[in-house]
Structure formats: C-alpha cells, structure tokens
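Is this the right way to post structure tokens for a design question? Let me know if I should format differently. Anyway, here goes:
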C-alpha cells in the first residue's frame, strides 16, 4: 500500500504530524557562543516550519557546556537558554509543525578550541585529546540529558530526540572500538548501551507518556556494527516506550558495509526489525520527490530531509504538489541561499560541502 507524503501520522504519545516530512537536525553554527538562540537560527528553523515540515527539529543542542561540538551551537544545558527556546518552540508550532529539540553531547568530538579544555569520552583517547569520564561523571551526564529534556518540555516543545549517532558521546559508549571501560558502562553490548537506555527511560519517567520521544542512531561508521545497532534498536522498540526511531543511513539505497555481498540494501536490513507501534524515519540521500515516495512505499513512516531542506525551505509543499519534484542543482549562489533563510555564517559553513555553494 502506497503512503502519501501528505498523510497524517499519529505517534504513540498522541502527537500528530500533519505530513511525512521531518527537517533533519542540521549543524548551522548560527547561534551565540553561550548557546543562546540567535535571530539567524530562529529565522532558519521557523522558515522550514512555515515551508511545510510536519516536524521541525533543531540542530544538535548540547546538554553540557563541555559537550559543545561546534562554534555557534544552540545549547539547552542551562535555564539561561529557556527564553530563546520558548520563542522558537512557540513559532514552530504556530505553523502546525511539531517542535522537537535534538539532545546532544559531542564527547571526544568537542574541539579543544571550542571548549577550551580537554574533551571527555568513555575511555582515554590520545588521538582526540580526550580523557575518560569518571563513573560519577557518567551518572551526571545521564542526569543532564534528562534535565535538558525536562527543560525542553518547559519551553513548550512537543518532544526531544536523543542523539546517539554520528560518533558523538552516546555512539562512543555504544562502540566496542572506542569504549574500553571495565565498569557497568563497558564490555558487553548490554553495558555499552546502558547509558542510552537509562537516559531514554529517565526522560520518559520525568516527561510523561504524552511527550514525543525519539532516538537517533547510525548503524554504520564511527565503530558501529549494523548487527549490534539492530539489537539496540529492537531493544529500544521492545522495552523503552519510544515514539520514533531515527536512523541516519548516509545513503538509504546502498549496500551495508558490514555485509558487502548482501543482496539487500541497508534500508532493507533496517526494515527487517519489528517496529510494533514505534514509527521509523530514515535520513540519507533522500533528495527528490521520487526518493520520498520510494522510502515511504518501502515501509518507512516519514522522511528526514537535510540537503533538499537547505535548498528549498518549502520542500514538503513542493513534493506534495509534484511527486516528481527535483531540487535546484548545485552549486547555488549566496543570494539564493540567503533567500532560503541561511545567514552568511551558515552559507560559509556550507562551503565545506564540495560543490554546494558557487
């Protein structure tokens, strides 16, 4: 049965998306160095909500000052951030888009020049100039993720997504390659996943059953194994009362790195899980109307859009009107991107993507 991108989607918690499009949590470096919301970031995000995204997610927002991953990152580690987040959540929701914060900690990927101290990690990493967290610091990290979710709820957000992907701190705990701990947070997959599971459990307990709760994982790269991530995903679905799972696949249509001889795509492997009532979204090379229809028809509940959302603030509306919609070809001019709601800072950041900006 084909799913129309314009159709409604209701989560276990009772919240409803008015279509099948989520704005990917995109690094943009536009906020203030103390983590407070800037006008530029507010404009960029609210323009996407206005453009028709059924769920508008912030960039990765750090839950501890030492967990900052990049300059100009939006924070949610302090009550000093509440005013900006209240304004942002209210405006996103005014366009009938679900407002969600992504909770983040960069761990060993926090650059020294950004945090001005040694980064923290599950285990010492000379390569990343990072030190191992003490056991009590791991417990504090758990509490700070949960506190950030409570803060987000106070600000009026519909929900949060816990960022366990892309080599950041929760990925570092999950990875048998990076995590060399010998306490209850290291060793077996059960132990390595303990911090993630405890955070999710704590958020649900503190924020209640009507708060939207998702988890982002990446099944490959950064020391991740597809087989282990499938186990973690199934446990989250079975035991932790999440509303959605957000899997960052880099390219939904490629073959898994772990199984190069596989006749199944990475997406097909992911779809083998028993999702029960948990909704699935995926990101990775979903750029056109045809791509959106393809993944929805494969069994994914909603599409997470990154690159095409930067190019077209109203990408959802365009695809709903024209199922064959294709985004403008890169490179695009600075003026074009400014008209699409990107500040000069964000445009300069986009120069890192080869061939994106003229």
């Amino acid at each position: 049965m084909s799913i129309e991108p314009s159709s409604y989607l209701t989560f276990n918690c009772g919240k409803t998306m008015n279509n099948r499009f989520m704005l990917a949590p995109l690094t943009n470096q536009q906020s203030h160095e103390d983590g407070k919301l800037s006008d530029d970031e507010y404009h960029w995000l609210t323009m996407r909500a206005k453009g028709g995204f059924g769920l508008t997610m912030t960039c990765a927002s750090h839950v501890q000052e030492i967990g900052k991953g990049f300059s100009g990152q939006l924070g949610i580690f302090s009550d000093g951030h509440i005013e900006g987040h209240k304004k942002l959540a209210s405006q996103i929701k005014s366009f009938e888009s679900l407002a969600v914060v992504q909770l983040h900690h960069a761990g060993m990927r926090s650059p020294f020049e950004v945090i001005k101290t040694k980064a923290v990690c599950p285990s010492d990493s000379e390569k990343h100039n990072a030190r191992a967290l003490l056991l009590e610091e791991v417990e504090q990290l758990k509490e700070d993720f949960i506190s950030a979710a409570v803060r987000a709820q106070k600000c009026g957000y519909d929900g949060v997504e816990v960022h366990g992907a892309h080599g950041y701190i929760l990925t570092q705990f999950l990875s048998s390659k990076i995590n060399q701990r010998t306490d209850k947070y290291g060793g077996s997959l059960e132990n390595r996943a303990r911090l993630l599971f405890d955070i999710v459990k704590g958020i649900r307990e503190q924020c209640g059953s009507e708060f939207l709760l998702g988890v982002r994982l990446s099944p490959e790269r950064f020391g991740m194994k597809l087989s282990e991530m499938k186990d973690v995903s199934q446990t989250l679905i079975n035991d932790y009362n999440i509303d959605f799972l957000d899997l960052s696949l880099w390219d939904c249509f490629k073959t898994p790195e772990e199984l190069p001889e596989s006749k199944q795509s990475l997406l097909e492997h992911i779809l083998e899980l028993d999702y029960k009532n948990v909704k699935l979204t995926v990101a990775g090379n979903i750029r056109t109307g045809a791509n959106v229809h393809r993944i929805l028809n494969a069994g994914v509940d909603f599409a997470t859009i990154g690159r095409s959302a930067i190019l077209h603030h109203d990408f959802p509306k365009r695809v709903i009107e024209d199922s064959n919609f294709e985004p403008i070809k890169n490179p695009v001019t600075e003026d074009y991107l400014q008209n699409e709601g990107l500040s000069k800072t964000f445009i300069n950041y986009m120069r890192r993507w080869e061939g994106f900006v003229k």
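Format looks fine. Someone answered above. Worth noting: The chain has one domain: 9-327. The chain has a mean pLDDT of 97.
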